[in-house]
Amino acid sequence: MSKPTFPPRSTPDAASAAGSATPADTAATSPAAVRVTLDAMLAALPATRQTATEQPPPAGTASPLHTSTGGVENNGFGTSSLSQHADTGADAESQRLLALHRPLEILQAQPARPTPAAVELDVDLLFVHSGNSNALAQTWVRRVFDGTRLHTAQLQANVAEQILLLRPQIVLIHFEQPLLSLSSQVVEQLRISHPHMPLVAVGHQKDPQATLTALRAGVQDFLDMDASAQAAQETIRNLLQRQPKMVQLAEASCPMTAILSARAGIGTSLLASHLAWYLQTQLHQQSPEQIAHEQSAMRHGPELDAHGGTPMPIGDTAEESLHTLLLDLGTPNGDTAMYLNAQGGLNFADAVRNLRRFDRKMASSGLGQAASGLRMLTLANNASVDGAVSAMAQAPTPSQADADMLLMRLRQYFRHVIADLGPALPNSIAMRAALRANEIWLMCDQSVLGVVSTAELLRQLERQKVDRSRIHLIITQHDSRLELDAQHIAQQLQLPLIAIIAERRLQLMQAVNQGQLLPPKARSEPYVQAVEKLTTTLMNAYHSDSPLKNSTSASAHSGTGLLNKLIHRIRS
């Protein structure tokens, strides 16, 4: 008796979703081939259901989703029908595979997102691990804290530097054999460089050595990877309520304005010296009430103290002279100190080496000081940036992390920092200071070479992920007789033009040769007008309670009225 044949069913729309059946598919009898076919069908299952409801398959046509494997028919609906005359062994194997795959339909319908408790944690976390070998720990942390802003770093990296860049609120450190000693060293270093940062260990509490090592290192808590996700989330939530956030320290930092250029010799040190002097004068004339109001608004936060130094609250106003700090990190170094006749004091390398006891009192008495009360900090005497880096490399802790920590501490003691970075070099201290500045002022002259070099410097800053909105352009040594005007340069560089400084080399050199700078009272001098305008910009942006705000604004905008224009024309 001959075996009856059954015409295959067809679903045209499902065919387009799953692809056409090949002879290899219909002839395959191995379990692997059946598994591949089933996986493909399960992936196209929702579309198949919809099209099967809307368009019944016409009889007598072959369906790409209809695969026959030793008599097994799959109709594309997650079920199977066996031919009554198929091979019994193949039928049994196919039925078993289909039964195994059938529950996947239910699993795919489950939500993939974590529990709502994880999403409620609005926090920046940094997870420090040992690399690819801790894939399980990384997966656990990502799953438990999926709703947070999670960053990762390796134990072998400069974790202190990563904290300064990423500014997390809590640092998670993995403790697991055989790297317990390395994890412990990282905790000890962070307790020195970031004493207010909450440190939490991640590991298995069933490993007593890991738990004991973490607690001895000084972590605030321990997250057990064998416990529930809700327990870990609740631990972090409670820790956030108990500990001050890192963002408070960031808000406690005073503004920093960085002045740099792509090429040397265009007057960054002269501009920084004038700007810091003018700003110091105006800030010094503020009343104690205005100073207290500004510091309570900008510097409210926990106490910060150096190890071995004098504890000082951030909002302390005992040292009223700590208004403006001039950082000289450019090359050649030390020009600003000569311009301002600043005497003695620590240099940058000395301050880094004394970082453990560098406090507000040392900032007041140990730094170089000009007659106006302006404090100064330069690199090592007669040393380039690379030489200063080599000198700081002899310190017991990483030099870059120490330099970053010193900058952060200085910004907690002063009201404004002006940083003369000169022609900043990649990977130098000057470039690192630029990355942390509130504003970056790029100085460029009217030469084509200067514009091209400035464009390359912009690309370097972009590679360092610097927000372009923080960068402004200053055209210096401007001569209106040149065809390459300031507005055209700003358009080419795609930067907002904040100031145009006229060519006044003769007047500047005459003042410098006499050991002076151009005083603010010389209001008819174009260079002074440009610097006063920049000073007013900083006062309005960061120190709006200045008593000289209105008068300075008026002087900075002198020459806009018809009478003032006539007076300037007569004087010239």
UniProtKB/TrEMBL annotation:
Basic and acidic residues compositional bias, start-end: 296-306
GO CC, one annotated term: cytosol
Region described as Disordered: 1-30, 49-90, 294-316
Low complexity bias locations: 11-30
Skewed-composition ranges (Polar residues): 64-86
Coiled-coil segments: none
InterPro entries tied to this protein: CheY-like_superfamily (IPR011006), P-loop_NTPase (IPR027417), ParA/MinD_ATPase (IPR050625)
Positions with biased composition (Pro residues): 1-10
UniProt record, GO biological process: negative regulation of cell division
One of the record's GO molecular function terms: ATP binding
UniProt-recorded name of the protein: Pilus assembly protein CpaE
Organism encoding this protein: Lampropedia hyalina DSM 16112
